[in-house]
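Possible race condition, two jobs.
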Amino acid sequence: MGEENPGKKRQPSRPRRIQPLYHQIYLQLRQLLTESALDISHPLPSEPMLAKRYGVSRVTIRKTLQQLQQEGLIRRVHGKGTFPAHPNDDPAKDAAGKADISSVLDNLLSFEKRTTAVTLDWQMIDAEPAIARKLRSERCLRITRLRSMEEMPISFTVLHVPERYSLLLQQDAVGNEPIIRALELGGVEAYDADQVLSATAAGPEIATYLGVEAGSPLIVMRRLMFNAEHDPVLHQEGYYPPDRFEYRMRVSRQSIGPVAQWSPIS
């Protein structure tokens, strides 16, 4: 048997990316649901079968399926099982034709697959100080996009990608894909995000693209996304006309008394 060369230094191993089990399984199932032509009349394997297949508890599987259901990728039928969502189903829109902005903000990947995007600007810039601090990068790729649903503009978005990740993106290759999805295809995966929702007045440029009056109120969402090592990978600032969206949530009463307290149900 040969002996290890004592003079040869062993290369340090790269740190492993640690993700919750449910998130790892979620990514695999999401890819299956979005990239495979599954028969919508055939149920997915049951929770016990999925738990056995992935070697996890039913609680973990249940949490994964809840996230997929929130994104509209599956539908759960009582007494029959869990099915792939019908391709014509659009849980992001209500009977009045308005989009549910909760789907936009919480499940961007799922929502944006049902829309089209036009890239208005794509260039490397010296980032504004606030953006540079957040992304830890003085140079950024700035991407401006107009996204529409059924030919109606629904969002004007300005995205900044730090220089260290910008080479992963090619304008011609991105097409209609959400930028975060294009980054994931390049090996940079968003793990969590800081998000702020507020309101602002539409400036002349944004008003023109969204087809609203200058000075009209807009919903603005700012989201800073991080990878598993908490390195910032994308800053996204989206503007949404409030008359084309509504925010829906279910809440549960947490206390009984003169001052009732309510909490959202996830």
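Job #2 (started ~2 s after job #1):
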Amino acid sequence: MRLRIVQILILLAVLGVVVIGIKHHSSQQTTAPTKTITISAPALIMRQSPNSSKAVATVKSGAKVGYIAKKKGWDKVTYDGKTGWLPSWLISSDYNATTATNRLAEQTIVIDAGHGGVDSGALATNGTYEKKYTLQMAQALQAQLKASHARIIMTRSSDTTVALASRPKLANRRGASLFISFHFDSSPEANTATGFTTYYYHKASKPFAKALSKSLNSLTLDNRGTAYGNFQVIRDSTMPGVLLEMGYINDYTDYSYISSSSYQQQVAQLVYKGLENYTAN
């Protein structure tokens, strides 16, 4: 009787091993690449996960990688026996990761033009609205960043109403690595305050705020530095984010800059430089 029980137990153990083997084989089949992608960029770095810093392999032009899945703008691939992630927007670009001095090209940057539509924002001394100039500045940065290869997402591209909560939700959903929101200050009494401030909410965003604030130092307006700000767009964003108050719209001097395309271009250039410096580390 005991011998019979032992035989049954052995049989069950063998069957268990077979079942586990079948499940493992099935799992391997479901994660195996279903197609291949040919890399046309000069060189890309395959990362351990989307937006991570750990490099898995360098993939050069002409290489074929096995495609597994897509997640928030990144492709999960296999190459040379390794599995990792590539920024999908760079696969067919002319970006060369081996010569880059920073990782700006690998960033997904959400640019938020504050206010818009029925939400006019603060009022300038001449009766124009904040929403007009936040959009102009956001678009100036968007144009400036085209040469960087970075993936740019705008919360609005026209004078439309965008709910406050939906702005960080968009950034979180699309897998943004950086978030920049443009606004302009307003003092209770006109012509009593001047300058620009870089706000952050999360502690992890403080180095990003400092990098941009430092880069903006050469502006004519006074740099009021970095400060903690409990603003929803940067509070609800899960990536490093800043809110830039780029001058007092109800101050005559500040407004003369805010409404100037040359100032907007200068801000865009300096923010671009700050992004380069921040992503170099």
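The longest helix spans residues 2-31.
Logs attached separately.
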